[in-house]
Design a protein that fits this description.
Elements lengths: L1 H37 L1 E5 L2 E4 L2 H12 L13 H30 L1 H17 L5 E5 L3 H12 L3 E6 L2 H7 L10 E3 L5 H6 L7 E6 L4 H14 L4 E5 L3 H8 L4 E4 L1 H14 L1 H10 L18 E4 L3 H12 L4 E4 L5 H4 L4 E3 L5 H6 L7 E4 L4 H14 L4 E6 L5 H7 L3 E4 H14 L1 H11 L3 H15 L5 E6 L6 H8 L6 H4 L12 E8 L2 E4 L12 E6 L3 H10 L1 H9 L7 H16 L8
Parallel strand pairs: 3-4, 3-6, 4-5, 6-7, 7-8, 9-10, 9-12, 10-11, 12-13, 13-14
Antiparallel strand pairs: 1-2, 15-18, 16-17, 16-18
Length: about 575
């Protein structure tokens, strides 16, 4: 339906702009052909000759194409030559008029938009690979698209800024990512992007306007109730509406910031593991940040500041607030409040000398960088956490050398990427948060032994016919598959491959850090952490029944009917002999 409407729109625009030029050409050539047929030609045998309509049409055809075959069927009379001159000049004028109208049509924004929508809808409709719709291609959208590309996941992009869509064309993505400049909250554009397409896995609303994100989520829920929707929101009112919708996941960057700040302060081992999982720059597994104990100074008490204060106070960490518009009744009793901007004087008033750390959390990068300079001058030993709002200021924040930088768009993109690519990772992190730090440290030690100093490769596989046919066939035949046996190395049996199964999802329930003896079943989803070279080896086990049987039993079975028959006959002959070597 969307493609049909786009075709109709293109046809209407073409007819609107080219109707008059086409009529002008038709009129000029009709008059010229008829006139040429009526013009008297040369006198032959005492009779005046006339050109018939076919010859006149033929003459104007090769004249219009400037081919020039000569005068047909006889030499022209002066009257015919005079009429030809008139027709040539009027034809040139008509063609200039038609070409000018055609150029204007090509440059018409409505025509180009309709053509872009038509081509975009065709690409999406013809796509058979699973894909994700990204509504918004700002900092968060572009970072998420890069992450999806690194994981070989396709995306379809909608954004109202034409410059962002133009920038999409020069990105070196490893997979196809078509984009369209359009309002993502309009239902027809969501339909064109494939919101009802059977290969569409999810939709992410990532615009900078919470109202638009809410509208996109509502429209998507009505158009396809089964589609998973992930919506970024920084408004409490919008979050309440979004959380009331079924199958909608709300990602609040400020809540994520508060969680990361708390982990860095109170659970550094968990913060280190999470940062290593998401591929944070400069993070080494098992080397967490060292944060001093004590009260913290919070510069900026907006939505992010509220979340950070709430999270830290809930875990017994004292907070002192610096903000010119802070309300003491909202901040709570007993909280040290300085109603001013975070400059030298206000930092001294807040007690920078004995503070464990400072969080620069305003929505202005210049203010946050200025706060860092003041902190460095007053107490360089203070732990510094800073909020980065714009990805364009990356160089300045790198030069600031803060202990921890929380980038708005990058943090949001990483969280959404985990939800789309490896949702069990986030469940694992939240599960570890509720356990003792010793359990996280034990997992870190195991992962260090598996991956070493390399970057982690997180990937999932479901034990279904499409992804692991050999395992499914073996289980259906009554065989048992233990987790540890499945991860053996077929090249060096019985040694295991350098990988860890972090979680198993079965029937909607997640089993975290399963034992090696854990029995697998059809339909289980396994989350692996390994090196990149391990996945192809395990994929061979999942797809090849002989390899699977070998890693499970250690017996290299014969392949082919002839060798299987010979092996079975040899086995029977050995079984038929007595221990002394005689037949019974």
């Amino acid at each position: 339906m969307t493609q049909t409407s786009d075709i109709d729109r293109v046809a209407m625009i073409v007819l609107r702009y080219m109707r008059r030029p086409l009529f002008a050409l038709l009129l000029v050539y009709s008059v010229g052909i008829v006139g040429m047929a009526l013009m008297p030609g040369q006198v032959v045998d005492g009779e005046t000759t006339y050109m018939n309509l076919f010859h006149a049409f033929y003459f104007f055809t090769y004249t219009a194409t400037t081919t020039g075959f000569g005068e047909l069927p006889d030499g022209f009379s002066n009257e015919q030559r005079l009429w030809t001159i008139f027709c040539l000049y009027t034809g040139v004028i008509a063609w200039f008029y038609a070409l000018g109208s055609l150029i204007g049509l090509v440059q018409n924004p409505h025509f180009t938009q309709a053509m872009d929508r038509f081509r975009f809808a065709r690409k999406v409709e013809g796509n058979v690979e699973p894909f994700i719709i990204l509504c918004g291609f700002g900092d968060t959208g572009s970072l998420l698209a890069r992450g999806l590309s690194d994981h070989q996941k396709r995306a379809v992009i909608l954004d109202s800024d034409p410059e962002r869509i133009k920038a999409l064309g020069v990105r070196d993505y490893s997979v196809s990512m078509p984009g369209l400049c359009a309002d993502a909250s309009a239902p027809r554009h969501l339909l064109a992007a494939g919101v009802e397409h059977p290969a569409c896995l999810a939709l992410a609303a990532l615009t900078n306007d919470d109202d638009v994100n809410l509208k996109i989520a509502v429209m998507a829920r009505h158009l396809n109730p089964r589609l998973r929707v992930i919506c970024r929101s920084t408004s409490a009112r919008h979050e309440a509406n979004l959380r009331a919708l079924e199958n909608v996941t709300v990602v609040d960057p400020f809540e994520i910031f508060a969680q990361l700040v708390y982990w860095a302060i109170a659970r550094p081992e968990l913060h280190n593991l999470n940062a290593w999982f998401v591929g944070a720059r400069g993070v080494k597994l098992g080397v967490p940040v060292k944060v001093p104990r004590g009260d913290w100074i919070l510069c900026g008490y907006g939505r992010m500041g509220h979340w950070i204060q709430r999270c830290l106070l809930a875990h017994g960490v004292g907070v002192r607030i610096i903000d010119p518009g802070v309300d003491s009744s909202v901040a709570g009793d007993g909280t040290v409040i300085v109603q001013a901007h975070a400059d030298h004087a206000s930092l001294v008033t807040a007690g920078i000398d004995d503070a464990a750390g400072v969080v620069a959390a305003t929505d202005r990068d210049s203010d946050n960088l200025s706060t860092l300079l003041s902190v460095m001058a007053l107490n360089p030993d203070t732990f510094r956490i800073v909020r980065q709002n714009s990805h364009e200021n990356q160089v300045a924040f790198d030069a600031a050398r803060a202990d921890l930088v929380l980038q708005h768009s990058l943090t949001t993109a990483r969280r959404i990427l985990k939800l789309l690519v490896s949702p069990l990772i986030q469940e694992l992190i939240e599960w570890l948060e509720e356990r003792e730090p010793a359990q996280t440290e034990a997992l870190v030690a195991r992962l260090q032994g598996v991956v070493g100093t390399e970057s982690p490769h997180l990937w999932s596989v479901r034990l279904v016919a499409d992804e692991a046919p050999a395992v499914v066939d073996y289980l259906d035949a009554g065989g048992g598959v233990a987790l540890g046996a499945l991860c053996r190395d077929a090249r060096a049996f019985p040694e295991g491959l350098p990988c860890e199964v972090l979680a198993v999802r079965r029937a909607g329930q997640s089993i975290m850090l399963p034992e090696k003896t854990f029995p697998l079943d059809v339909g289980d989803e396994l989350l692996f952490c390994s090196m990149h070279r391990v996945e192809p080896l395990l994929q061979a086990t999942f797809h090849n029944l002989y390899t699977l049987r070998y890693v499970l039993t250690g017996v290299d079975e014969s392949r082919g009917y002839l060798f299987a028959w010979l092996e079975e006959r040899l086995r029977r002959r050995r079984a038929g002999h007595k221990p002394n070597g005689r037949r019974p």
